[in-house]
């Protein structure tokens, strides 16, 4: 059976990673969370105290090795041999990940790795530039959007579940700031590829959204 590339892009909280995971599982594909790779570089830069120094980040890039491993607990992110899956979600990383991701040398390195991982197909990759830059020839491109209210509520719910006290207005502000940063950067900004299918998930459940993507994928796979 044909093994295709499914590219899922969109702003924060639109449901990319959770649906990409489900779609990959049901199709027997590999799921690649490219945001985790940008977060791992940001974490390493923070640990070295150079997160706001572009030149220094470019200098140490060769010393950063990122692996994405599938485990029963979901995808794990391994940074130079250490499992950093929890640390890359810390607020300090979230605050700086957009500026670090806007740096040319960082994108060059990670895009090359993403292309290598996905070259044989059978993958669902989510991020900001998968359909536009990483795999412009992906057989299926999805661009997810949702209202800022829905996205804020989803993030708040996730944080509450982790026992973190949340300020709705603060979460909303942070999401808007990150979307603006990601959409306006010079290199590979967040935007919909012309041939991507737009899905507004504001009123959809995760199951409905995943089912829709699987249906679209099956049409192509069974062609
Ligand atoms: O928090 P959320 O799941 O929405 O974000 P993420 O997918 O973990 O991505 C974190 C950040 O990494 C984004 O805000 C972008 O700045 C950057 N990113 C990127 O530039 N390109 C990608 N392909 C994926 C993520
Ligand atoms: O990866 P991205 O930032 O686009 O979003 P996500 O991490 O997949 O989704 C953020 C949260 O929204 C997760 O807790 C999902 O379970 C939830 N979600 C939802 O409630 N309804 C949807 N239709 C999609 C996602």
**Low confidence ranges:** none
**Helix count, per DSSP?**
9
Bound molecules: cytidine-5'-diphosphate
Order of helices and strands: EHEHHEEEHHEHEHHEH
Alpha-beta content class? alpha/beta
Number of domains: 1
- Overall radius of gyration: 17 Å
Overall pLDDT, averaged? 96
Strand content: 15-25%
State the distance separating the first and last CA atoms: 10 Å
Strand tally is 8
Q: How would a crystallographer describe the biggest sheet?
A: 5 strands, parallel
Q: Would you state the CATH class?
A: Alpha Beta
Oligomeric status of the shown chains?
Answer: single chain
Question: What keyword list fits this structure?
Answer:
223 residues, alpha/beta, Rossmann fold, five-stranded parallel sheet, three-stranded antiparallel sheet, globular, binds cytidine-5'-diphosphate
In a nutshell, what does this entry contain?
The protein has 223 residues and is of the alpha/beta class. It has 9 helices and 8 strands. α4 (91-101) runs parallel beside α8.
Explain what you see.
A five-stranded parallel beta sheet has the order 2-6-1-7-8. Strands 3-4-5 form a three-stranded antiparallel beta sheet, with helices on one face. The protein is globular, with a radius of gyration of 17 Å. The chain has 223 residues and is of the alpha/beta class. A hairpin with a 2-residue loop joins strand 3 (66-71) and strand 4. The chain has helices spanning 16-27, 34-47, 54-60, 91-101, 104-118, 130-134, 148-161, 168-184, 206-221; strands spanning 5-9, 30-33, 66-71, 74-79, 82-83, 123-127, 140-145, 197-200. Helix content is 50%, strand content 17%. The mean pLDDT is 96.
């Amino acid at each position: 059976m044909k093994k295709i590339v499914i590219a899922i892009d969109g702003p924060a909280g639109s449901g990319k990673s959770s649906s990409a995971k489900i779609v990959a599982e049901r199709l027997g594909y590999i799921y690649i969370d490219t945001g985790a790779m940008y977060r791992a570089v940001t974490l390493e830069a923070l640990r070295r105290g150079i997160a706001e120094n572009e030149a220094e980040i470019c200098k140490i890039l060769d010393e950063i090795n990122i692996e994405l491993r599938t485990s029963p607990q979901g995808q794990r992110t391994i940074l130079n041999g250490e499992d950093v899956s929890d640390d890359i979600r810390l607020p300090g990383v979230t605050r700086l990940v957009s500026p670090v991701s806007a740096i040319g040398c960082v994108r060059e390195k990670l895009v090359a790795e993403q292309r290598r991982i996905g070259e044989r197909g059978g993958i669902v990759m989510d991020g900001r530039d998968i359909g536009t830059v990483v795999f412009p020839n992906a057989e299926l491109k999805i661009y997810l959007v949702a209202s800022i209210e829905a996205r804020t509520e989803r993030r708040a719910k996730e944080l509450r579940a982790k026992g973190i006290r949340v300020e709705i207005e603060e979460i909303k502000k942070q999401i808007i700031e990150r979307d603006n940063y990601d959409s306006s950067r010079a290199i590979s900004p967040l935007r919909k590829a012309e041939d991507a299918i737009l899905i507004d998930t504001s009123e959809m459940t995760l199951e409905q959204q995943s089912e829709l993507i699987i249906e679209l994928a099956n049409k192509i796979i069974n062609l």
